[in-house]
Design goal:
The complex is a heterodimer of chains A (about 375) and B (about 180). With about 375 residues, chain A is an alpha+beta fold. Chain A is built from 8 helices and 18 strands. The longest helix of chain A is centred in the C-terminal third of the chain and has 17 residues, at about 295-310. Chain A starts with a strand and ends in a 6-residue tail after the last helix. Chain B has a domain at about 5-120 and about 170-185. Chain B has 6 helices and 4 strands. Chain B is globular and about 45 Å long. The chains are: A alpha+beta (about 375), B alpha/beta (about 180).
């Protein structure tokens, strides 16, 4: 579980530290930095364990505009595997034209080194923290991505696996319209625009999750029978939805793109719930309430909480919706705010000093408590 | 597209209360999607007052639904804190009287659950811990979600017809068991 995120010189986050809990509702006004927190988690994941180069999403336009600092710093603290992991990344600029490069990257477990890149040299440590290999690399991509599982690096692989299972999503049903799945996609796109391809992968890789998804959708969508991938074994498949309609309950097939925006959102949200939440994972969802019927929000939220508990997973939700505020704010709410369009302030718990009996949504709607 | 109709309305003062009720409801076999948990108070210190202020309107809605021939169940759960459980219930009934409404009758589909001091007392006694309801529990480490899940399973067993509650069952829970049984 992520227990701390530190970031300096990334957009509105300057010397920013956030200590999330297992269930966290990120509250705050538009532009306060909630989505940026999620963005950093996705960025570090893509950089450290999915092989993205650092020039794509670091420094450049992502540095804090009112500063002129050439260095970005990030840190994650993660509890798990019987200890605390710390991940540190420092990026600066180099060459002509100036391009981002890794100045330092480090993973420790309970303060002991597992991986270090510094001064152009990678140091690989084993599970006993002994420095077993050193070699130079070009500081453009993380070498962590290249490291494969071996008997002596189980601790490091646990961290990589955790980071790989950080899912950051803002469901966009309009982007999900594509029914064709040319190939399998191991990971969901940030807006679930590759839903058909991700589902194609899940059908092969996570049948328990897709079975549970079908049961959930049967409860939610009138006449729903299942999601089917139609097409040749190795070619492009098309995602279909089988629904019984009309008085006789006659089965009909629709392509996934023919569903309404709200229906696609629901399918996406329940797929995240059943398939993205695996043991000790972290799921961040930005505004999950978009497009879906009010009566569907609470059942999904409560099932999500159950599922997180079953899988010892962590949930972070950013939302302005009253349903989320009224169920989560008093216990799990954290306020992300900025002062005078300056840097985001240290997050604070949504705590009220006065003896109000208003709901959290009403307090937010009134602009009280600076939310 | 959705066929969801909320039939069980839960007015609770905090997440722990909600969770105990929800877990219990699941044990009884009620369809999860029929639950509707009403908003929680923004300020956790005002939970009992929050419930009291909303009690009368929810009873009125419940009765209105019944009058229209729609079945529904209202579950209200709030701590007695430093009052007696009977006093807390009288406070709730007084809110109805203020509006000229009849007090809740035992035959109505309205269940009022009131732990003495707080719901953690019930959870702990369900988990086998000896609790003294005469004195406030000074040692109040928060109960975990896992503990509430376990406690709800035990509560379901204790509340069944002809079941014998465990030896650590506190008086306020013992008195409330018929009400839990009424839920299902």
């Amino acid at each position: 579980m992520l227990t701390r995120l530190f970031c300096d010189n990334y957009k509105c986050l300057v010397n920013f530290e956030f200590k999330p809990t297992p269930m966290q509702l990120l509250m705050g006004r538009n532009g306060s930095g909630k989505s940026t927190v999620f963005e950093i988690l996705a960025l570090l994941r893509d950089f450290a364990v999915r092989g993205d180069p650092c020039e794509d999403r670091l420094l450049g336009t992502t540095r804090t505009r009112w500063q002129d600092l050439p260095v970005q710093r990030f840190e994650l603290d993660v509890s798990g595997n019987g200890g605390i992991y710390n991940y540190e990344l420092v990026v600066d600029e180099w060459g002509k034209p100036l391009l981002p490069r890794i100045r330092k990257e480090k993973v420790t477990f309970n303060g002991n080194p597992l991986y270090l890149f510094e001064n152009g040299v990678v140091h690989l440590h084993n599970d006993q923290f002994e420095d077993r290999a050193q070699f130079p690399i070009f500081p453009k991509r993380s070498y962590l991505y290249e490291i494969e599982s071996r008997p002596e690096n189980a601790k490091l692989m646990w961290f990589k696996n955790w980071l790989d299972h950080v899912t950051v999503v803002q469901v966009d049903p309009k982007a999900m319209k594509r029914s064709q799945a040319q190939r399998e996609a191991v990971y969901p796109a940030p807006d679930l625009s590759n839903f058909a391809e991700w589902y194609r992968h899940l059908r092969q890789d996570n049948s328990a999750g897709t079975d549970a998804l079908r049961v959930s959708l049967q409860e939610i969508v009138d006449g729903f029978e299942g999601l089917d991938l139609k097409g040749p074994q190795n070619g492009t498949k098309e995602l279909h939805v089988s629904v019984r309609t009309g008085m006789g309950g006659k089965p009909n097939g629709f392509t996934f793109s023919e569903l309404s925006d709200g229906q696609r959102s629901l399918v996406g949200l329940y797929t995240l719930l059943h398939c993205a939440l695996v043991e000790h994972s972290t799921l961040c969802i930005d505004e999950p309430d978009n497009f879906i019927a009010l009566s569907e929000i609470q059942p999904w939220l409560l099932l999500l909480i159950d599922r997180a508990e079953e899988t010892s997973s962590q949930i972070m939700i950013a939302s302005h919706h009253p349903e989320f505020l009224n169920q989560l704010a008093s216990r799990n709410g954290v306020v992300i705010e900025r002062s005078n369009a300056g840097p985001t302030l240290p997050p604070r718990a949504f705590e009220l000093q006065n003896d109000t009996t208003l709901t959290a949504a009403e307090i937010v709607a009134r602009g009280w408590n600076n939310v | 597209m959705s066929n969801r109709i909320a039939q069980i309305i839960i007015l609770a003062e905090d997440q722990e209360h909600q969770m105990l009720v929800r877990r219990y409801l699941i044990h009884t076999g009620h369809e999860r999607r029929s639950f509707r948990f009403l908003p929680l108070p923004a300020n956790r210190r005002c939970g009992s007052q929050f419930v009291r202020e909303r009690f009368a309107e929810q009873v009125k809605e419940c009765r209105g639904m019944l009058a229209r021939g729609a079945s529904n169940l209202l579950i209200v759960i709030t701590d007695a804190d430093n009052l007696k459980t009977t006093e807390r219930e009288q406070n709730l009934q007084a809110e109805l009287a203020k509006l000229g409404n009849d007090a809740v009758d035992t035959n109505e589909p309205i269940v009022i659950l009131i732990p003495k001091w707080n719901v953690e007392t019930w959870v702990k006694c369900l988990l086998g811990q000896s609790m003294d309801e005469e004195n406030r529990d000074s040692d109040r480490p928060p109960v975990t979600r896992e503990q509430i899940t376990t406690a709800a399973a035990i509560l379901f067993a204790w509340a069944r017809h002809n079941a014998q509650p465990g030896g650590t069952c506190v008086a306020s829970l013992n008195a409330a068991l018929p009400r839990w049984r009424k839920i299902g």
